[in-house]
């Protein structure tokens, strides 16, 4: 009989920088009031769902979201730097419009999702580096927690990588799926490989942003 490992992925709640379309990356930005309400609503939505372990990015916006979910369950949260957002180098702290205006050539390569394109000053992670970090970590969880159900609270860029990998989509090109704040997303792996069980559930939320580049 095939054994299934299930992973629930939740993007952190809303921040003011999300509203402003400002690139957060690994800047440690807090949730806004709406984000806190989203985190609490997600906690209620997942309260009756069996989950063995909770992992979270150690950046505040994810960590606080995870804390609100876990405390309702009486479970600890394990901090995991590997679940941090991509490091966007010198684009961090800029809005997308500012990054496009100040660094048009680099932004064009970023928008085209060129795998080895860096940021001005050779800072940050390329898409290829980011993919290796995220998917390598997800695969390690599959091995370590075979047959268990996990919750990962993380970031939009992380969910982009995971969705593409699970669906066997290329890392380049536009996406055709949502990455909303505090949406609930389920993937699973069994003897047949990875699959998406459900994606983008926002039925528990009173509005959620997906402000990321498509």
Q: What does this entry look like structurally?
A:
The protein has helices at 16-20, 33-46, 60-73, 96-102, 104-111, 127-144, 156-166, and strands at residues 5-11, 53-56, 78-79, 149-154, 184-190, 193-201. The chain is of the alpha/beta class. It has one domain (5-87, 126-201): Phosphoglycerate mutase-like (Rossmann fold), CATH 3.40.50. Strand 2, helix 3 and strand 3 (78-79) form a beta-alpha-beta unit. Helix 4 packs across helix 5 (104-111) and helix 6 packs across helix 7. The longest helix is centred in the middle third of the chain and has 18 residues, at 127-144. It is globular, with a radius of gyration of 17 Å. The N and C termini lie far apart (39 Å). The mean pLDDT is 95.
By CATH reckoning, the class would read Alpha Beta
Treating each run of at least 4 consecutive H or I residues as one helix, how many helices? 7
Helix and strand content put the structural class at alpha/beta
**How many domain regions?**
1
CATH level-two architecture: 3-Layer(aba) Sandwich
Mean pLDDT, as a whole number?
95
Per CATH, what is the topology? Answer: Rossmann fold
Question: What does the largest sheet look like?
Answer: 6 strands, mixed
Strand order of the largest sheet: 3-2-4-1-5-6
Give the C-alpha Rg.
17 Å
N-to-C CA distance: 39 Å
Report strand %.
15-25%
- Taken from the alpha-carbon principal axes, the silhouette is globular
Order of helices and strands: EHHEHEHHHEHEE
| Unreliable runs | none
Helix content: 25-40%
CATH superfamily: Phosphoglycerate mutase-like
